[in-house]
Amino acid sequence: MSRVPTIPILNALQVIGIALLFLTLLSACGEPLRERSIEVTATEMRFDPDRAEARTGEQVFLRLRNRGEVAHSLTIELPSGDRTVSADPGVDAVLAFRAPAPGEYRFYCRIPGHEAQQGVLIVTP
What we know:
The protein is of the alpha+beta class. It has one helix at residues 6-28, and strands at 35-43, 46-48, 51-55, 59-66, 72-78, 81-87, 92-98, 103-108, 118-124. The chain is elongated, with a radius of gyration of 25 Å.
């Protein structure tokens, strides 16, 4: 008569159970990264829109669409430092960053003489 070793089977079941529990907890740990695409069109001395919104933690893809006759840039003042993207006439450029804590973050064209060309990114919780 053959005897089935119960201890190794119980140990194996415990290991499998712990692994399943770990995988369940791991899959519930975080939500998928949210993304937001924002398009800002630059023309002579203005951004359209001059107000954009995002939520904290979103991966933001800010597309500068230069539809003006001269080069434009877009600089956004973030807590981690200013981020800038530039585009020649008829060219699009993309700036990617993680939306910071809730607040208002100014963006502007840093080309001399374009001081009136600005807007704000409003980040909500």
